[in-house]
Amino acid sequence: MTKKEILREWRLYFENRQVRKDIYEKYIVYIGVLLENNVPIIFNFDHLCLLLGRSNEYLSSVINCSSNHFRDFEIKKRSGGHRAITAPYPALMEMQYWIYNNILKAIPINSSAHGFTHKKSIITNSNIHKGQKELLKLDLKNFFPSISINRIIYIFKQLGYPNNIAFYLSSICCYDNFLPQGAPTSPILSNIVSRKLDKRLITLAKKFALKYTRYADDLTFSGDIIPAKFIDYVTAIVCDEGFEVNINKTRLYKSKGKRIVTGISVSGDVIKVPRDYKRKLKLELHFIKKYGLESHIAKKKIRKYNYLFSLVGKVNFWLSVEPKNQEALDYQILLNEYVKKIQQPLDITL
């Protein structure tokens, strides 16, 4: 149905229920805006409960006390240390996925964003900066927690939702009035919130003939010349947009040498897996090839239950960056043979 036909159906619906024309015309305007933005029509709290398949009591609990519906844990970072994760329990996560799939997924984000977006990745992000003379990397401090519920409310209001509905939807996506790192809605919301930041940084980069990308909280600039003063300009824009630069992680590379962008080497004209990553991986694979998987595990006293599959994942990552690397292809074949062996059904004869 076209927008015009849908609005006609709604007019008939209101007229059949003898709603006053001056009242339902306001609803028609509201519905028209939501249809224009291709988002679901939500009239009130009870209607939202029906759409989400949750009781009024449950949704009230989420809105009024979000901390009861999340759990906290930590995961190890590749660079060392731990990252705090605040993840929703299944019932809340299901509601967040509804919001993601029905409202947020279709909202456009800036082309410079490479994290949490379709057809982009750490590979597309790093590929833009390969072989450049100079490189600048900055990190946004406490990226997700720095995004408050008020900024999320503003997103939903821009789509046409009134204050109360925007507040309900934002409360479902937030934890203690901030964006949690662990909710399925947080990545896309962070990209939407960062659209103006990205637009301003692209404009700044163009003035200096530089390239710019953002992968979540990692900002990267590259080009022929990056003046030291440029960092101050970036920092000023970042602060003005409600974020903070982690000064301890700011790196400006002016000479040739090791350059890593989102875990990938961009030192040459072709992106590659970092040398240290390959060296450690190849050493393990060498021993497996020479002595066999079982012997290697026994000698090194490896206790990881998923050790084989972690190696498969590492080799697959290597090939995703360097798809024609023959050494990686050979190791992939070797590991796949071991995977086939452990996945074979047991031959039990009665």
Automatic annotation (TrEMBL):
Ranges in coiled-coil conformation: none
Domain annotation Reverse transcriptase: ranges: 1-266
Domain of life according to the entry: Bacteria
Reaction catalysed by this enzyme: DNA(n) + a 2'-deoxyribonucleoside 5'-triphosphate = DNA(n+1) + diphosphate
Matches recorded under Pfam families: RVT_1
EC code(s) of this entry: 2.7.7.49
InterPro entries reported in the protein's UniProt record: DNA/RNA_pol_sf, GrpII_Intron_Splice-Mob/Def, Reverse_transcriptase_msDNA, RT_dom
Keywords: Antiviral defense, Magnesium, Metal-binding, Nucleotidyltransferase, RNA-directed DNA polymerase, Transferase
Similarity comment: Belongs to the bacterial reverse transcriptase family.
Protein name: RNA-directed DNA polymerase
